[in-house]
Amino acid sequence: MNVLITGGTGLIGKALIKVLRQSHTNITVLTRNCSKAVKTLGTDINVIDELNLSTIENIDAVINLAGEPIANKRWSVEQKKQICQSRWDITEKLSTLIKTAKNPPSLFISGSAIGIYGRQGSLSIDEEFTDYHREFTYEVCSKWENLALAAKSENTRIAILRTGIVLDKHEGAIAKMLLPFKLCLGGKISHGQQMMSWIHIDDMVAAILHIQKTPSLKGFINITAEQPVSNNVFSRTLAKTLNRPCMLTTPAFILKLIFGEMADLLLFGQNVKPTKLKNSGFRFTYPSIDSALKNLLTKKL
């Protein structure tokens, strides 16, 4: 199988390529920096920095994971623009080429996030939920998804990954939290009742491969673990796993001073359920936050 991946040097992309490599899949990675991608991914990966129709004609599946990390910097006007354009531009180009191709890919998996739902408190929501809270994350994801759906045809199945917080020891949310917790400075954020819908990186990759092999899976798909938890539960479980206390609280006003509008990602959440994945027969290796953190933080590397 020939697979084209965007965002191949990101957290999810690297983990996915590692698994695909084992199945002898022919992998092409679209990147802005070919030399950096080769250094990161290895010389056995086909690396390109331009997209054209001939490339798409020879691909069986496109997996679009590109996008500026949403929580890396304060949301200035320029940063918001970068977050949007890094997702929208490549997705629009992919959809245009797929629609134009005489022999289009049979599958287009494109990224999104549970941020599409906006802040929803503790309300349990799945893919049928449409009462979105319209804020920045909604605006980003809504256009991102619509641009991907434009490629839909009888020849191309579209799957939109509404991804939660991806847990990995070396990158992402956990990596940022480890140092303060190890220094006994960890604790809940604000009241701690905001819900966190998360997924272990191994289950994230397994879900993508499951979608690839399951023709009935299409449209919007929540990529989150079965058991979302509150920030308080997450913090306490992380502290317990590291054998550290969990006594401190980070006040909301401190986060707003430091991060501005981006603090909303930490202060509000969603209680998201992966109904489509479960109904399609997918089984999580790490269904609980306890099992996920134990695997990530106590296994020998």
Question: Summarize this, please?
Answer:
The protein has 301 residues and is α/β, with parallel strands linked by helices. 42% of the residues lie in helices and 19% in strands.
Topology:
Layout: E1 2-6, H1 11-22, E2 26-30, H2 34-41, E3 46-48, H3 53-57, E4 61-64, H4 77-100, E5 107-113, E6 124-125, H5 136-149, E7 157-163, E8 165-167, H6 172-182, E9 187-189, E10 195-196, E11 198-200, H7 201-213, E12 219-223, E13 229-230, H8 231-241, E14 248-250, H9 252-259, H10 264-267, E15 271-272, H11 275-279, H12 289-298
Parallel strand pairs: 1-2, 1-4, 2-3, 4-5, 5-7, 6-15, 7-12, 8-11, 9-14
Antiparallel strand pairs: 10-13
Helix pairs in contact: 1-7, 4-5, 8-12
Descriptive overview:
The protein is globular and about 60 Å long. Helix 4 (77-100) packs parallel to helix 5 (136-149) and helix 8 runs parallel beside helix 12. It has 12 helices and 15 strands. It is 42% helix and 19% strand. The longest helix is centred in the N-terminal third of the chain and has 24 residues, at 77-100. The chain has a 7-stranded parallel sheet with strand order 3-2-1-4-5-7-12, sandwiched between helices. It has a two-stranded parallel ribbon with strand order 6-15. The protein has a domain at 2-168 and 197-225 and 271-284: NAD(P)-binding Rossmann-like Domain (Rossmann fold, 3-Layer(aba) Sandwich). With 301 residues, the protein is an alpha/beta fold.
